């Protein structure tokens, strides 16, 4: 339950920086009716758009637009909320925000509106994370999954598992008082069947969460090969018709060495090592150093060779030697069209090879399938959970404790204790058990005004 209910008034520009048709300033706090009156000289009705002039202290108009008033508790934060829709220019927005500060609001911290929503019980932690994930989603599939989290579908599943854990735990703890018949009693109540069922449900959820995590963070792919072996052509083939959907997060600098494409909605961050050349340009050197750090986190290395020439040498081999050795590798034998070779998949010395033509596209589907295999992708349903690492960790820990419990049926105190630990891990996902540190980490990564 909420430790503190902050009542001071916060304000921020909620729309993206820059010019736009409209811009929104959002205010949340205690009693905001006097605030609205001072701002526009009129009385807003709850949840009704009021067209008004927004005025400064001297009574001069700053802008005109819509004022929306959501009285507590029926608002996003659970407090009184006012939204001012004005003209979306940075100067106008700055003046409107300044007026709100004059009226006693302070600047909101990143994610503070959503944090208040969480503290006031409007959202649980997984839903709050869904808000940020929806805003940051880089593919349509990721956005759909984030919306599922936001709307509480993930939380509902987590809560069902938690409730089943509590039921079982209560049953086991009740029998502790009757040591004579305990095992008998538990067997009659199907305690062990229920434990197995719980385990299966946790495994199912973890699996879908793992798939969802892929949608969220994607796969790091490194392309290696000599000049002219067909790296750019292959990239274009992999992108296919999906290119139009790929987006860049606004404000991040574009990295020339790295391109994000998508495969069945999974972002593939592709680094073309052709850009990793010796250079004296300082800026380029910094980019290259950063690229090498990304390469250390590679999930798969695509090694391109000419299908007629076999393994190549030279510069590409030099780069090859510096690549992490324990990462999955796929050798792509390109340009089969030149050699009358057919498209096929081969296993050669533990690694997989794919023969294809980046020019005609023949065999590229084999490579796509191979990439998805490496990623561990298999689900295609709509019920994926856009999980974060912290969710995966909590599910893994819960599963571990449920597994331990199964091994402790002879010592019921330990059995019950493992169930309690599993329940606690599961509860971390929705924020039932959460520390201030964790909240700080989660909300500080939000944007301002959210
Ligand atoms: P990169 O330097 O490795 O990026 O190679 P490019 O993709 O720029 O390709 C170099 C040349 O090889 C271009 O003229 C491509 O059209 C050609 N090429 C690439 N893939 C194939 C292929 O599968 N078959 C044939 N015949 N030519 C290809
Ligand atoms: Zn980028």
Automatic annotation (TrEMBL):
**Could you state one GO biological process linked to this protein?**
tRNA wobble uridine modification
Q: Boundaries of each TrmE-type G domain copy? A: 218-376
UniProt-annotated binding residues for K(+) = 228, 247, 249, 252
Binding residue positions for Mg(2+): 232, 253
Instruction: Return the broad EC class.
Output: hydrolase
Cofactor(s) for this protein? K(+)
Binding of (6S)-5-formyl-5,6,7,8-tetrahydrofolate: at which residues?
A: 26, 83, 122, 450
The protein's location, in the record's own words, is:
Cytoplasm
What HAMAP family has UniProt attached to this entry? GTPase_MnmE
Record function comment: Exhibits a very high intrinsic GTPase hydrolysis rate. Involved in the addition of a carboxymethylaminomethyl (cmnm) group at the wobble position (U34) of certain tRNAs, forming tRNA-cmnm(5)s(2)U34.
Which protein are we looking at?
A: tRNA modification GTPase MnmE
Instruction: Tell me the organism.
Output: Pseudothauera rhizosphaerae
Q: What gene codes for this chain?
A: mnmE
